[in-house]
Amino acid sequence: MKDSERFFQEAKRYIPGGVNSPVRAFRAVGGTPLFIQRAQGSKIWDVDGNEYIDYVASWGPMILGHAHPRVVVAVQRATEKGTSYGAPTALEVELASLIVEAIPSVELVRMVNSGTEAVMSAIRLARGYTKRDKVIKFEGCYHGHSDGLLVQAGSGATTFGIPDSPGVPDDYVRNTLLAPFNDLEVVKYLMRANPGQIACIILEPIAGNMGVIPSQEGFLEGLRRLCDEEEIVLIFDEVITGFRVGWSSAQGLYGVMPDLTCLGKIIGGGLPVGAFGGKREIMQELAPVGGVYQAGTLSGNPLAMTAGIETLKLLKEEEAYQSLEEKTSYLCTEAEKIARTAGTPTSFTRVGSMFCTFFTPGPVVDYATAKRSDTEAFRRYFWALLEQGIYIAPSQFEAGFLSLAHTDGDTEKTLSALHHAFQAAC
Ligand code: KE4
């Protein structure tokens, strides 16, 4: 770990906390974050030459595995044609058409540069379209770091115990209403208490930022019905779940259609990207057609488009989701048996190739039950796995991801490491 320590000290001279995103700082688990040298397939190597099986997958994008040859070659070729024009290209049309073809509710889509930007823009669009101001979000769901949504947010905000970040003026969150995830009754109460004032309801259809918490039976359908009754825009933040849990994402898996969808991560194949799309009637309100302004110098960047197109084409060609389902189901089923044998109080959640081990007996159905997890036990578990060459997210409140590059050998090595890790957690 010596070179990671050296780089970390050096990084802190120039970068706040030595990282460009807080969750990377290992604050929830202590110790020095790994500085990564390279990655290939299911493996990642730190600057000290240690090899790990990677279940972070850059927090979701690397569903093919790292440095897939087809993506690498395509991006190399694209670079030779220039890296940014600030003008429309055929590549943007190709990626947009793939997204429209795959995501059932999306008729028009706008590319941006991050998930945060996608969600921030979708909220503004919903407000512009409805001429209403209030937003309902769910405790523990994380939608990026735009001011109005950093309230009881998940992911790093939970890890840091700063769900309401300093620097966000009170009147920026005055219009943000909160409900527990999976709780329709509170949503109904908020709608009664704010008649005709709610522009949109936004959620992760499968929460991936308080660990992984699936929507319960009837929850998404109930939200769809309530939004129809009050003409509220339903927004699915599928930045994680988009192309992760199926070709048509969570909305296809559950058969509930939102009005707007936010995407990111996988659609950029590891390059900076975000997108938001949905009903033509709503999307047409966006400049330059409508009055809702949204823009970006590098939006639709040719390199990110190229990486995204190759990634989606490969997902479409291979029996990707069947393979991911089988591999992840086996891993998680066996892991649960090992935890039970070790007597470690845990509960497991999984949808497709996104999964989580909570260090609490469960059931985990929302932010409150997720936060009952023993984060000290998780810390011991994390380090016991890392020392055996298994790299998972350095926080209880994140998701684990499998890729198409993970092999049976990776699974066997991981299961073997879990025996010690679950005992260490106790
Ligand atoms: P970005 O701005 O980080 O590209 O996307 C924000 C975002 C929006 N919506 C959902 C559902 C998300 O999960 C995210 C970002 N996810 C976190 C990990 N849980 C990114 C990791 C980080 O913050 O470094």
Structure explained in plain terms:
With about 425 residues, the protein is α/β, with parallel strands linked by helices. The chain folds into two domains: about 5-65 and about 320-425, Aspartate Aminotransferase, domain 1, CATH 3.90.1150; about 70-315, Type I PLP-dependent aspartate aminotransferase-like (Major domain) (Aspartate Aminotransferase, domain 2, 3-Layer(aba) Sandwich), CATH 3.40.640.10. The protein is built from 15 helices and 16 strands. It has helices at about 1-15, 70-80, 90-100, 115-130, 155-160, 170-175, 185-195, 220-230, 250-255, 280-285, 300-315, 320-340, 365-370, 375-385, 410-425, and strands spanning about 35-40, 45, 50-55, 110, 135-140, 175-180, 200-205, 205, 215, 235, 260-265, 275-280, 345-350, 355-360, 390, 400. The strands form four sheets. The chain has a seven-stranded mixed β-sheet with strand order 4-12-11-10-7-5-6, with helices on both faces. α9 links the parallel β10 (about 235) and β11. α12 (about 320-340) packs parallel to α15 (about 410-425). The longest helix is centred in the last third of the chain and has 23 residues, at about 320-340. About 50% of the residues are buried. The protein binds ligand KE4. The site of ligand KE4 has 21 residues, from α4.
